[in-house]
Write a structure and sequence with these properties.
The structure is a single chain. A seven-stranded mixed sheet has the order 6-5-4-3-2-1-19. It has a six-stranded mixed sheet with strand order 7-8-9-10-11-18, with helices on one face. The chain has a six-stranded parallel sheet with strand order 14-13-15-12-16-17, sandwiched between helices. It has two domains: 2-207 and 378-435, Ribonuclease Z/Hydroxyacylglutathione hydrolase-like (Metallo-beta-lactamase, Chain A); 211-371, Metallo-hydrolase/oxidoreductase (Rossmann fold), CATH 3.40.50. The chain has helices at residues 50-55, 79-82, 85-88, 101-110, 181-190, 211-223, 240-252, 262-273, 289-302, 321-326, 350-365, 382-392, 404-416; strands at 2-7, 16-21, 24-28, 69-73, 97-99, 120-122, 128-130, 135-141, 150-156, 159-164, 194-198, 231-235, 256-260, 284-286, 307-311, 339-343, 369-371, 396-400, 432-435. The N and C termini lie close together (5 Å). The chain is of the alpha/beta class and 436 residues long. It is globular, with a radius of gyration of 22 Å. Helix content is 30%, strand content 21%. A hairpin with an 8-residue loop joins β1 (2-7) and β2.
């Protein structure tokens, strides 16, 4: 088995791995790097050429992908895992794109703006399909911060590969079911030849809390908010469980939930179509700038305290809605003692950290009351990773989705369980190869 670490092996994002087994190649994930050229959930990259995107480090460099690609497999629908499909999949037009229902609907949405000639194939959590006579792909149900997340298992003639990028072990998810531990245990008993595993939060001690905790944190802040002042909340547009909780809390308070932003409209409309999201009656959703300006004028005229704007911009991106509101570019103004809630963490890279710091500084200057970290991560912490290693007992490990420090931290954890670097732990940079 030959594994090419195409992208995501020296940064958070741009995930892509190519696996060659029995003379056949398949690709897992095809993502973008969100911190390059200020890209975020509302950014349009459709006008940029493939070469420009690769040269700027936005999408993976596919020059090292060799062989006849039989399939493109997508573990879940975050942009750092699927955002490059619109730009790169056409290079493998005979390879079907395989994903869970929510993920495939996101790709269908991109088809409106980009050429994606590949066949789109839905594979449900818990199902297996053959991509050739030599390889089958299984989606094991997993929890993360977007619906229909999976651990991908490739059953090949040369062994079993588990791709665990990204995941958390949430036994009380707000939407969906808990991870399929029974199936993971059986896969571990049957034998795992290689585990490719994310390392974003492996340095965090303990376990990642359930999404139910984020719901309670947000509810506590909103219920205690000043009823005579404006409240704005920002979160990930793809965090459908969080949006479900926030809109329900707002509605129970007699406040109109107002979802604003192009990505908010995209992710929530697809979730509603698939009956994953059930927005309360009266919830308003607007994506285009003209409609957003119009409804925010209405909010100001009616009284800010009657609405809860749920907006993009939690990372402090200069062209996202929260930054535009803070800069006075929209009818809604942040005034003294207005409350701004960040139901999100900062994605760990210097640009995001700087943007977020700058945004918070500007909000403080306006007299806003800021609530940070009404949030739980979608990524596994150290003890969650330890559990997965014990369940799967892989023969070989390739840490991914992280900078070198994150990958090395995962290697240290694996060493605690008896693995050794360069014997059965492989630390690689983008474009390198592991031969097993």
């Amino acid at each position: 088995m030959k594994i090419t670490t195409v992208g995501g092996y020296e940064e958070v994002g741009r995930n892509m791995t190519a696996v060659e087994a029995s003379g056949e190649t398949f690709i897992i994930d095809m993502g973008i790097r969100l911190d390059r050229v200020m890209i975020h959930e509302d950014t349009d990259t459709s006008e940029m050429s493939q070469k420009e995107l690769i040269d700027k480090g936005i999408v993976p460099d596919i020059s090292k992908v060799k062989g006849n690609v039989k399939a493109i497999i997508l573990g879940h629908g975050h942009l750092d895992h699927i955002g490059a499909v619109a730009h790169l999949a056409k290079n493998y037009k005979n390879a079907p794109i395989i994903g869970t229902p929510y993920t495939i609907e996101l790709i269908k949405h991109e088809r409106r703006y980009a050429t994606i000639p590949n066949q789109l194939v839905v594979l449900e959590q818990g199902e297996t399909m053959d991509i050739s006579s030599k390889t089958s792909i299984e989606f094991v149900r997993m929890t993360h911060s977007i619906p229909h997340s999976t651990m991908c298992v490739a059953h090949t003639n040369e062994g079993t590969l588990v791709y665990a990028n990204d995941f958390k072990l949430d036994d009380t998810p707000v939407i969906g079911k808990k991870p399929d531990y029974d199936r993971l245990k059986q896969i571990g008993k049957d034998g795992v030849d290689v585990l490719i595993v994310e390392s974003v939060h492996v340095s965090n001690e303990g376990r990642t809390p359930s999404e139910e905790i984020a719901k309670k944190l947000t509810e506590d802040i909103l219920l205690k908010s000043d009823p005579d002042k404006g409240v704005v909340i920002t979160t990930f547009s793809s965090q459908i469980a969080r949006i479900q909780a926030i809109t329900e809390i707002a509605s129970s308070m007699g406040v109109t939930p107002l979802l604003l932003g192009r990505s908010m409209q995209k992710y929530t409309s697809i979730a509603e179509k698939l009956k994953i999201l059930d927005l309360p009656d009266g919830t308003l959703v607007y994506g285009d700038q003209k409609s957003i300006k119009k409804v925010l004028t209405r909010v100001v005229n009616d009284g800010k305290e009657k609405y809860l704007p749920i907006v993009t911009g939690h990372q402090g991106e200069p062209d996202a809605l929260l930054s535009k509101i803070t800069a006075g570019k929209l009818p809604y103004k942040i005034e003294h003692d207005d409350q701004v809630i960040f139901s999100s963490g900062v994605i760990p890279n210097p640009i995001n950290e700087a943007n977020r710091y700058a945004l918070e500084t500007k909000l403080h200057m306006l007299g806003a009351r800021i609530y940070k970290d009404a949030h739980v991560s979608g990524h596994a912490s150290k003890e969650d990773h330890r559990d997965v290693l014990k369940i799967l007992q892989p023969k070989n490990i390739i840490p991914c989705h992280g900078n070198l420090t994150m990958l090395a931290t995962y290697a240290e954890l694996a060493e605690e369980l008896g693995y050794s670097i360069d014997k059965d732990i492989y630390l690689r940079r983008n474009g390198q190869v592991v031969n097993l």
